[in-house]
Structure formats: structure tokens, C-alpha cells
Amino acid sequence: MIRGRFAPSPTGALHIGNARTALLAWLQARAAGGAFVMRVEDLDFGRVRPGFMQTQLDELRWLGLDWDEGPDVGGPFAPYVQSERQGLYEIALRRVAERGLLFECTCSRRDIAQAASAPHVGEEGPRYPGTCRERRVDPSVPSLTAHGRGYFALRARADADLVCFDDGVMGQQCFDPSAEGDFVVRRKDGVAAYQIAAVVDDAAMGITHVLRGADLLSSTARQILLYRALELPIPSFLHVPLMLGPDGERLAKRHGAVSLGELRAAGAAPERVVGWLAATCGLAEPGEALSAAALVPRWDPSRISPQPTTVTDEMLRRLRESAIG
Ligand code: GLU
Fold it and tell me: Do 85-240 and 3-71+241-324 have the same topology in CATH?
């Protein structure tokens, strides 16, 4: 049985781009008769806002999605909130250390920016130049989450190597993770970083299919390095295009990007929102209204274009009007 998931970060309101990704992840699991897991990625303590987790869950339910396991329904792999799973990340960090791939890094963002001779700016900022690579972590230290907390981060080595995977929408993808450099797996504040937390949880929760936004394509290569180091089974990946505003930039509030909450508060019918979202990626006709459940038989990733979806003002206007009007 396939197991899919959606992993929102409760750092803000869900907008239509997040909603589309959630809908597609849910469709993929449901169309295969599989299980769907909701996991809350709340490790970015500085950006997490109280109450957002519940609001996001309520809005996804309003849209017509449901989940078999999650923070509010429980399940065999609980807890489903990352801040409560630190013990598992500790174990994984130790394994990475045992492989000789973990090192202490005292570099500040500024050090890294200054050291970058040919700055390659990736998902995580400028390329890490490998300054502290030789400060290998002794795997016998009692606690890797406590080790040097407040003083240094822990990074995993990303040696030059081509990491390839077959993506369900984007096709064959190859990245050299060393182009972005060794990456943080435990932050300076002692908390596990996204890359390792996502890998540990997807594996521990038995996730077979990871569907997420295309902004995470190169993260997937880094995560594959961790799957290998931890000797965990690698799931299949499907990255869905991002939604861009009319100016070609990632859809944001300033484009009048609509949040699910806004649509809901204005009395929108979820079927209209689902129809609009599905139409933006070839799964429904423009103007069609249908429930998420009615869309399940239409799931067909080959209809999703790998190109980013440009959302014009006209499309946003139609969404508002058809959903609310
Ligand atoms: N928490 C991430 C986000 O909201 C998603 C990560 C993932 O799906 O792996 O962008």
C-alpha cells in the first residue's frame, strides 16, 4: 500500500500554492487506495506562530482533504509534530557521525558569504566552502543535540558526486550536492534541521511517496545522501510546479495571492476552490466545480506540466469571483 504525506510548516497562512500541493499529495495517495499522513514541520521555532497548526489543519479539512494519521487523529507513528520527535533525530545524527560524515561548523552566515569566491546561491544560501570539514564529530559524544549547542552547528559532508532520481513530474533529475556544499543537519540552537528531520520522519512513518513543491528538488538530492548514510529505503519523489505571480516571482501576498482562510471566511464553496486549483494543473476544466473526492479518479500526474504555473491577475480574479461570487 502506498503511503503519502503532506508536511506543512505552521509559519503562516496556507495560500493557494500550498493548497494545491496538499491537494495533489492527497490525490496521489487516495487514487492508489493508500494512506495519507499529515506531519507538522514546526522546527523553525523563530517563525512558527501559535495557532497556525490548527488553522492549517482546519482549512485543509474544509477543502475536503482527510488523513489517516496526524497530530489531531494520532496513529501508529505518533507523534506527528516534529518538535516532539527530537529523540529520533539524535539517533540519526549519531549514525551520520559514525559514518564519518558529520562535522562541527562555527562559520556564521557572514563568514560563508565572504568565503564564497564564486557564489553559488542555492536553496540554503551561498555555497558552504567547507571551512570546518576537518572538525569531524566523535560519534561517542553523549548527546549530539546538546554537543556544542549555542556554539556551533553540525553539517553533513556533501562530496562531489552526481545524485540522480526519477521524478514523477519533472523526469530524471541529477544534482551534485557539493555545488551547494556541506549542509546543516543540526542547527546551532541544538535543533535538527529540515533535511535530516524530513528524511528520518518520512522513513519512520513508512512514507513510500513524497510529493512536494519543486522548490525542494535540490533538497531531495541532499536527502538522498542522508537516506544512503542512514541505510534507509528511498521513497519515490514527485515534485509539483510552483505557482508564480504575473511577474514571474514566487506567488506571494503582494500579488494578492489568496489564502485558503480568506476564501473560506468570504464564504467560498470548497468545490469551486478545488476546481480552480485542479484546472491550474490540467486535472479539471476551467470553471469546473468539484469536490476533492470527485477528483480522485482523475488523478494523472502525466497531465501536470513540469513548468511553473503562472497565475495571472485574471486567474486570481476568476478564483475570487467564482469561489465567492
Ligand atoms: N515543511 C516544508 C514546507 O512547508 C515541506 C517539506 C517537505 O514536504 O518535505 O515547505
Answer: yes
Distance 58 CA to ligand 1 centre (A): 18
Name which CATH class applies to 3-71+241-324.
alpha beta
DSSP 214: G
Centroid of ligand 1 to alpha carbon of 8 (angstroms): 6
> What cell was used for 4?
503519502
The two most distant CA atoms of the chain are separated, in Å, by: 63
Strands 102-105 and 121-122: unpaired
Residues marked as catalytic: 253
Q: Above 90 in pLDDT, residue 109?
A: no
Give domain limits for the chain: 3-71+241-324, 85-240
The pLDDT tens digits of the residues spanning 158-215 come to 999 999 999 999 999 999 999 999 999 999 999 999 999 999 999 999 999 999 999 9
| CATH 3.40.30.10 for the 85-240 domain, yes or no | no
Pocket test for ligand 1, best of 194, 205, 211 (most atoms within 8 A of CB): 194
The preferred substitution site among 28, 216, 218 for testing ligand 1, maximizing ligand atoms within 8 Å of CB, is 216
pTM of the model: 0.95
pLDDT at 121: 66
Give the DSSP H/E element, type plus range, for residue 6.
Answer: strand 3-6
- Binding-site residues, ligand 1, Cβ < 6 A: 7-9, 41, 198, 212, 216
